[in-house]
């Protein structure tokens, strides 16, 4: 039974079945939020929720508009509003240069990282405009690749640069409705995606060498997201960059 107070804030977290999304969802639940957990794999969402009474598991593919609408309808039907969206679902995409990537792989990466983020943001904005009182906060999960790419990551890098434009546009257009939007760009937090690019065993560098790079705990990345979510409505946090200390970001290349 959900014993959280009626005034408890409501958050939607996409990509909540693993990694940063899982840890953010858990920290929000611990902080008193009511949280709708979205992702493609229901079993993993249930693991994240761990039977918490203020968690709502909603299987959702963010590339499908009907799924996204159903996600936000479920949150509103259960709790009446949406106060925060952590727009987190994403994929790293193929290791390829622009002359090597297939159109199919390009479109698949763009569909999740960019179009899916747009669909979720659009649904959140509609909900935040319609509720009383109006307003809310959207936090987009970018990447330090929104600033500086890794080699052979053209699709991922382009989507994360585009995420910055999406963030700024939502922030601008939301001003009259009390809706703020910010972006968190995280580098080398210890999640499964880091294994796919070999950060712990030797990630490809700009000069063609491979280097073991430092990582930092995912719980600390999630703490930064929670900080953004908990800022008062009078404050807009436009950009936060959090990286593992000593990783090759400043001076990358």
UniProtKB/TrEMBL annotation:
<keyword id="KW-0560">Oxidoreductase</keyword>
<protein>
    <submittedName>
        <fullName>SDR family oxidoreductase</fullName>
        <ecNumber>1.-.-.-</ecNumber>
    </submittedName>
</protein>
<dbReference type="InterPro" id="IPR036291">
    <property type="entry name" value="NAD(P)-bd_dom_sf"/>
</dbReference>
<dbReference type="Pfam" id="PF00106">
    <property type="entry name" value="adh_short"/>
</dbReference>
<comment type="similarity">
    <text>Belongs to the short-chain dehydrogenases/reductases (SDR) family.</text>
</comment>
<dbReference type="GO" id="GO:0016491">
    <property type="term" value="F:oxidoreductase activity"/>
</dbReference>
<dbReference type="InterPro" id="IPR002347">
    <property type="entry name" value="SDR_fam"/>
</dbReference>
């Amino acid at each position: 039974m959900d014993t959280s107070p009626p005034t408890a804030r409501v958050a939607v977290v996409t990509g909540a079945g693993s990694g940063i999304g899982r840890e953010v969802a858990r920290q929000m639940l611990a902080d008193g939020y009511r949280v709708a957990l979205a992702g493609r794999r229901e079993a993993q969402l249930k693991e994240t929720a761990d039977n918490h009474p203020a968690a709502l598991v909603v299987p959702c593919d963010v590339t499908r508009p009907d799924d996204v609408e159903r996600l936000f309808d479920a949150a509103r039907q259960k709790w009446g509003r949406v106060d925060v969206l952590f727009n987190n679902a994403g994929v790293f995409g193929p290791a390829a240069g622009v002359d090597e990537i297939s159109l199919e792989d390009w479109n698949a990466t763009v569909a999740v990282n960019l179009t899916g983020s747009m669909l979720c943001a659009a649904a959140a904005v509609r909900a935040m405009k319609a509720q009383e009182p109006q307003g809310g906060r959207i936090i987009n999960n970018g990447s330090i690749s929104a600033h500086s790419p890794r080699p052979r990551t053209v699709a991922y890098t382009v989507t994360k640069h585009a995420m910055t434009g999406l963030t700024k546009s939502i922030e601008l257009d939301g001003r009259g409705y009390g809706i703020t939007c910010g972006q968190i760009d995280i580098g080398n937090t210890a999640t499964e995606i880091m294994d796919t690019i070999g950060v712990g065993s030797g990630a490809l560098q700009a000069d063609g060498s491979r280097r073991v790079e430092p990582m930092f705990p995912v719980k600390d990345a999630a703490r930064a997201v929670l900080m953004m979510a908990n800022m008062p409505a009078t404050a807009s946090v436009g950009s936060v960059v959090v990286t593992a200390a000593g990783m090759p970001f400043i001076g990358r290349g």
